[in-house]
Amino acid sequence: METIPQRPLKVGILLPVAEYRFAGRTPRWSDLLAIARVAEDAGFDSLWVVDHLLVRAPGQPPEGVWECWSLVSALAASTRRIQIGTLVTCTSWRNPALLAKMAETVDEISDGRLIVGVGAGNTEDEFRTFGFPWEARVSRFAEAIHILHALLRQGRVDFEGRYYQMRACELRPHGPRPSGPPVLVGGYGQRMLELAARYADLWNTYYSHTGNRASGLAPLLAAVDAACAAVGRDPGTLSRTASVLVGLPGHGPICGVAAPPLTGSAEELAEEFRAYARAGISHLQLRIEPNTPAGIEQIAPALALLDRADG
C-alpha cells in the first residue's frame, strides 16, 4: 500500500458505476474489474465507488447505478495492493451500526485497504424514490457518524438519539486494524464541516465545488480550518482530498458536470496535480473520460511524471 517516495500526493480512480458511464454504455462487473486491475498495475493508489441509487440529471434520461457496497466488497477480494474507498456512502440508507459491520468486514477482506467515505446525501429524488426520509438528513448524519465512529474506534456504543438507538452494541469480530479503517467525510455546510472536524480522518471536496482546479480550493480549505478551530482540533491532523475531472483526447460528451474538465498533456496534468499537493491536498480521486482501461493507460504517463523527483 506504500506509494512511491517522490509522489507528492496519492492519486486514485473514480470508477464508472452508472449507466452510460463506460464509454457511453453500462459497465458490467467484468469492465469494472478490468479498470481496477489496470489501475492497480499502473501504480494508482486507490479505487473509489460512488453511492447512488438512481440519478436523474436535468434534461437527461435516468441513470441506474450499481450498488456501492456490493462492488466495494468484490473489489476488495479481487485486488491486492490498491486502496478502496466510498465517495461517499449515504448514512441514511443503511443503519450506521450495520454500516460499521459492513466496513469492518470489507476491511478484513481487503487486508486493511478500505477508506470509509460517508455523507448525508444530496439528492432528494433518490431518497423519495427509494423510500428514505429526506427531512433532517444532517441531523440523522450527526447521529450516524457518532455511532459509526464509536464502533470502528472503540468497538462498542450505547446511544439514545432521536433517529437511532443502540443498546450495548459491539462490533465483533475485529478486522486487521485495531482502530478500524479511516473515515472520510464529504460536505460543505458549517454543520457538516464541524462533524468532519470532530470525527473524520479525511475530508473531501468534489470538482463541482472547486471549479475543477487547484486554484479554487482556498476558500474551502479555509472553511475546514475554521471548523477544526471550532471543535478544538489541530487543522493539520485532518487530511484533505479532492476529486478532479479529467478529459482525455477523444472523450465524448460529459453529462451532469458543473465544471470544465482538466485537459492537456501528461506534463500539464502532472503539474496541476502537483498544484493540488502544494495547496494541501493529500489524495486525489480522478474521474477520467473516457473511463475505460484504455483511458487508465492513457493517463498513466502523468502519474509517472508525478513520481519523478525533478518533476
From TrEMBL:
Entry keyword Heme: no
Gene3D superfamilies: Luciferase-like domain
Keywords: Flavoprotein, FMN, Monooxygenase, Oxidoreductase
GO BP of this protein: alkanesulfonate catabolic process
Classification via Pfam families: Bac_luciferase
Luciferase-like domain ranges (all copies): 11-246
Any GO molecular function: alkanesulfonate monooxygenase activity
This protein's record includes keyword Cytoplasm: no
Record-linked InterPro entries: Lucif-like_OxRdtase_Rv2161c, Luciferase-like_dom, Luciferase-like_sf, SsuD_RutA_monooxygenase
PANTHER family per the UniProt record, alphabetical: ALKANESULFONATE MONOOXYGENASE (PTHR42847), ALKANESULFONATE MONOOXYGENASE-RELATED (PTHR42847:SF4)
UniProt name for this protein: LLM class flavin-dependent oxidoreductase
Lineage of the species this protein comes from: Bacteria, Pseudomonadati, Thermomicrobiota, Thermomicrobia, Thermomicrobiales
